[in-house]
């Protein structure tokens, strides 16, 4: 199953986060130290791990891909749901044992916790696990180098404030060398934080207020990526479509304007963005979908619930009808757009009738892909204070029903592409020799067994088969030939 934009499969992230940092010769210290960054959670964490790796390269740290090989381990954590934080604590227990063994040999082993658990739990982490040397919240990553120096001299460092300076001004830009190793697709954080305060969500507390990075910096970073061979950029933000900035004339622009500017970059074949809020889908962005072929026809637009009563209790600031109206506008502008969404079942007070409204919305909208979660009470959020928590068994049962419907829709969407000819971007080798894996415009994995091109090429294929999670294809012309022969 494809990973959720805010919940990428951890194995996948480990591959992406750890071994990607290339050091410039000038950055190597005479005694190179080694860092392992383990990333949990969302794509923004993947991006942050890369930036942290770059910052540590400047301190003489080389990347390695396991804790066993490292002198410094950073757990870049996620706090969106309960289990994620618990996983971090059990991982910290393992790291403590490793640290004790190293210390017995007189060797250095530092443990840092970064990301949203670091922000939410702060010094509680060092209280609960004394082996931790550093706790660093997402808004203080530009101070990471200094924190590591302090930790190496024996200090326990907890940095979880929201400083006035912008960390992006102090972190190195995404490095072309780094991204070349990464492949043909890259993330680019354009906006961070959230001012929406949905009552279930920790993000406004862990990532802070909405901040947009300036247009010029983004263009510079995106140009670096495309010059290094990146063909597809996914713009990231917790509320990416709340991005706002100024163009060269000083006029205010939103994400539609940013996308329009980036679309002009030579070499950039595809642009995506995630995650959006229904209230911020403005006309300029919808027009960009109508007009820009580079903007892929895929939209992750969480709705969480189909019941107005629950939407209100969630403080989503829109009704189900308003969400449906946004979908109608976007489909009118880009009829082939595929939709993805997030759903929460069992929010406090959710009745069977409320849940039925969610199912009905799913039936009406139809999703190419979607992610559904049982409500998990997060300390410090207004939702955690609500009475009328839904019993676990009811949540389980609703989740199963919702997921059955969503899976059915996902399979139907895959099947609807059989026989269609489309461009896919070749991203990586497949499991079998000679096999390649690409992505459709609708974010589906496409497996191709015949020689067709190289990684990084945009090639035209015809879909022949659809599995539950991937499509299978042949080169478009060979399909035509076969048809003519038969
Ligand atoms: N419980 C369950 N799911 C949650 N999400 C966010 N907070 C919670 C929570 N407390 C889900 C939402 C969001 C996605 C990233 O995670 O659906 O869109
Ligand atoms: Fe959380 Fe709501 Fe903000 Fe999304 S919009 S990050 S769900 S508070």
UniProtKB/TrEMBL annotation:
Gene3D superfamilies xrefs: Methylthiotransferase, N-terminal domain, tm_1862 like domain
Key word Chaperone present = no
> What keywords sit in the KW lines?
4Fe-4S, Cytoplasm, Iron, Iron-sulfur, Metal-binding, S-adenosyl-L-methionine, Transferase, tRNA processing
Reported EC number(s) for this entry are 2.8.4.3
Which residues does the UniProt record annotate as the domain TRAM? Answer: 415-477
Cofactor(s) required, per the database record:
[4Fe-4S] cluster
Q: Where does this one sit in the cell?
A: Cytoplasm
Q: Where is the MTTase N-terminal domain?
A: 33-153
Reaction catalysed by this chain? N(6)-dimethylallyladenosine(37) in tRNA + (sulfur carrier)-SH + AH2 + 2 S-adenosyl-L-methionine = 2-methylsulfanyl-N(6)-dimethylallyladenosine(37) in tRNA + (sulfur carrier)-H + 5'-deoxyadenosine + L-methionine + A + S-adenosyl-L-homocysteine + 2 H(+)
Q: Which domain of life is it from?
A: Bacteria
Chief subcellular site? cytoplasm
* SMART domains the UniProt entry points to: Elp3
> Which residues of the sequence carry a binding annotation for [4Fe-4S] cluster 2?
194, 198, 201
Give GO cellular component annotations, separated by semicolons: cytosol
Q: What class of enzyme is it?
A: transferase
* Cofactor binding mode and count: Binds 2 [4Fe-4S] clusters. One cluster is coordinated with 3 cysteines and an exchangeable S-adenosyl-L-methionine.
One of the entry's Gene Ontology molecular-function terms is: tRNA-2-methylthio-N(6)-dimethylallyladenosine(37) synthase activity
Name the job this protein performs.
Catalyzes the methylthiolation of N6-(dimethylallyl)adenosine (i(6)A), leading to the formation of 2-methylthio-N6-(dimethylallyl)adenosine (ms(2)i(6)A) at position 37 in tRNAs that read codons beginning with uridine.
Q: Which HAMAP family would you find in this protein's record?
A: tRNA_metthiotr_MiaB
UniProt family annotation: Belongs to the methylthiotransferase family. MiaB subfamily.
Listed NCBIfam families = miaB-methiolase, MiaB/RimO family radical SAM methylthiotransferase
Outline the subunit composition.
Answer: Monomer.
UniProt-recorded name of the protein? tRNA-2-methylthio-N(6)-dimethylallyladenosine synthase
Look up and give the organism this protein is from.
Notoacmeibacter ruber
Gene coding for it: miaB
């Amino acid at each position: 199953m494809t990973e959720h934009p805010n919940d990428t499969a951890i194995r996948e992230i480990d591959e992406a986060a750890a071994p990607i940092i290339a050091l410039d010769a000038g950055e190597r210290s005479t005694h190179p130290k080694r860092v392992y960054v383990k990333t949990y959670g969302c794509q923004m964490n993947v991006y942050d791990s890369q930036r942290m790796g770059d910052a540590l390269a400047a301190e003489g740290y080389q990347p390695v891909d396991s804790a066993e090989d490292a002198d410094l381990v950073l757990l870049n954590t996620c706090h969106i749901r309960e289990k994620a934080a618990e996983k971090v604590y059990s991982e910290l227990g393992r790291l403590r044992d490793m640290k004790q063994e190293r210390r017995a040999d007189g060797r250095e082993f530092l443990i840092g916790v970064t990301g949203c658990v670091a922000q939410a739990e702060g010094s509680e982490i060092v209280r609960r696990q004394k082996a931790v040397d550093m706790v660093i919240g997402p808004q203080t990553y530009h101070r990471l180098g200094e924190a590591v120096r302090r930790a190496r001299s024996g200090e326990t460092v907890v940095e979880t404030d929201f400083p006035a300076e912008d960390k992006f001004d102090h972190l190195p830009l995404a490095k072309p060398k780094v991204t070349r190793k990464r492949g043909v697709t890259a993330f680019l954080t354009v906006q961070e934080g959230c001012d929406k305060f949905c009552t279930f969500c920790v993000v406004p507390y862990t990532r802070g207020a909405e901040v947009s990075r300036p247009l010029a910096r983004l263009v510079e970073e995106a140009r670096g990526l495309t010059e290094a061979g990146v063909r597809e950029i996914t713009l990231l933000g917790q509320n990416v479509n709340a991005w706002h900035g100024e163009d060269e004339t000083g006029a205010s622009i939103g994400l539609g304007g940013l996308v329009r500017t980036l679309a002009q970059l030579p070499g950039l074949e595809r642009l995506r963005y995630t995650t959006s809020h229904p209230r911020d889908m403005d006309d300029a962005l919808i027009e960009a979908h109508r007009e820009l072929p580079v903007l892929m026809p895929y939209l992750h637009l969480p709705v969480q619930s189909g019941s107005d009563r629950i939407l209100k209790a969630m403080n989503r600031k829109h009704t189900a009808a308003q969400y449906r109206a946004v979908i109608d506008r976007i489909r009118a502008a880009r009829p082939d757009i595929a939709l993805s969404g997030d759903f929460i079942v069992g929010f406090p007070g959710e009745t069977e009738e409320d849940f039925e409204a969610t199912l009905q919305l799913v039936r009406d909208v139809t999703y190419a892909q979607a992610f559904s979660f049982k409500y998990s009470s997060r300390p410090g959020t207004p939702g955690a204070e609500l009475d009328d928590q839904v019993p676990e068994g009811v949540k389980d049962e609703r989740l199963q029903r919702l997921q059955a419907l969503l899976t059915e829709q996902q399979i139907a969407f895959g099947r609807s592409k059989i026989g269609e000819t489309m461009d896919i971007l070749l991203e990586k080798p497949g499991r079998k020799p000679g096999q390649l894996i690409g992505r459709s415009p609708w974010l589906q994995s496409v497996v191709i067994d015949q020689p067709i091109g190289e990684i990084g090429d945009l090639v035209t294929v015809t879909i022949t088969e659809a599995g539950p999670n991937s499509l299978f294809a042949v080169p478009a012309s060979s399909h035509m030939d076969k048809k003519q022969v038969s």
